Amino acid sequence: MFVDPILASWRDNPYIVACWALLVLAVSRAVFNRYGRGISHIPGPFLASCTDLWRVFVVWRRRPELEHIKLHQIHGSLVRLGPRAISVSDPAAIQIIYALNSGFVKSEFYPVQQTIARGRRLLTLFTSTDEAFHAKLRRAVSNAYAMSTLVQFEPLVDSTTLEFLNQLEKRFANKAGPDGVCDFSKWLQYYAFDVIGELTFSKRLGFVDKGGDVENIIGDLQWLLNYAAVVGQLPILDSLLLKNPIRLAASSYNLLNANSPVANFARARIASRPDVAEGREKSSDTANGKPARRDFLSRFYEAHRKDPEFMTHERVLAVTVANMFAGSDTTAITLRALFYNLLRHPDDMKDLMEELWAQKDKGSFQNAEGLVDWNDVRELPFLSAVIKETLRCHPAAGLTLERIVPAGGVTLCGQFIPAGTIVGCNAWTVHRDSLFGERTEEFRPQRWLDASLEQRRLMESSIFSFGAGARTCIGKNISLLEIYKLVPAVLMRFEVSLSTVPTLSQEYADKAYPKLELADPSKPWKLHNAWFIKQEGFEVRLKTRKTKA
Q1: 516 is a domain residue
Q2: Tens digits of per-residue pLDDT, 110-125?
Q3: Which cofactor does it need (predicted)?
Q4: Could you tell me which of 542, 516, 539, 457 has the C-alpha nearest to residue 183?
Q5: Residue 290: DSSP 8-state
Q6: Do residues 112 and 232 lie in contact, with contact meaning Cβ atoms separated by under 8 Å?
Q7: Whole-prediction pTM value?
Q8: Total domain count, the chain
Q9: Is 318 within a domain?
Q10: What is the pLDDT of residues 143-167, one digit of tens each?
């Protein structure tokens, strides 16, 4: 018969049969992915509709936000990024996808970022996909992050800020040649890390004092972000790699060390404070006779003592790790972007300096060391506009914040999306929407001052840098406190400009004479998207003012 030779050939060449079977299976899977998920009507790259490997490749190249922006420019508000993944750029969708009790839950992208301690996953507010758990944990620790609480931490922020300014002056200010070049990319992260260390443990971690990484924790965090960004596009890989059951079980019995370095780092610092863990922390008095300020660790253990069954020692470790994980990178990224854009836009630098000097003339900024009070800067119009525009132009997160469509499906941008589909917004595409006015690709703080009150409120509600809804970043207030306090302190301690001095009114000319300047204005920085879009190669020169502010 006709089939007999074929069957004989198959018996003689089983590997060829296996290859054909795999090919048929792969093609069948790709066809099902493209047409069988109920979202074939959503435009996007052909390969993206067939396999998640397209997403893996795009993220592996380290600039996925550029690909996402380009695709939305071509296809509109909805773009298919995977067999069951859709990116949404319409700001109006934020109120649907991320609303409180909307039914949208986090995807499996987030557990990939869970750190490991003694063979167990550390669940945090950010990495947990369980909404009930998230709500309970947030209630347990939310008071520690309220702005009213953080203002009590202001002296701790000041302590690190002063050391940061002094180190910059000692190491780099007024020096010619290579000795005067400061890598702001690194130093702003040292600052952010030490602030969160002081707020969490009442002690700087040592980055600013050392002028370098401490126990390679920055390197370890960067490795984890690189891993999570890529593997998170195909989360099943995580179960085969870092979190495979055999590896976790062996770690739980101390047969191998699978602990995340950042967890070890945090555990060591908690262990150095046994009085806090045991509820017998010594409370010295301040100059005003009031109890000493409690740091984050103290407050976490207060939550532990209120509900030890839920807020276990392991959970205290988890939220402490989360503080360091998110609290350093995101703030450092925003600070880099702010200073970089001001140096690239001298007119905006001029306007900000004039606002700061005018505020000083009103009696603010009287600290002899050049530190500033939160109450003196939090309502400065142009400073606020600069910060908002920085958050709009360079949000820290560079991937979609994924959510799973609940039962019944949802209609987004006029298109029905079935249940089980992964949808999400990427701040880099949302912030390019025409809602923010003209030339959204440009850094223009003035857009926030020119907008009507109604338009400004709409723009503010659409800023997605800290997420939205119940999952809004709990550390948002920490980050803003640092930014509002550090930026004026740096600009009034060090004279700032590009290589070409902007024209200033005579009244302020002597005060704003150069320079903190880009070491090489012709050389742009480098961006690296590993979940957070970090900047490298941001080198500056510093010159102290003739009289300190």
Answers
A1: no
A2: 999 999 988 899 999 9
A3: heme
A4: 539
A5: P
A6: yes
A7: 0.91
A8: 1
A9: yes
A10: 899 878 888 889 999 999 999 999 9
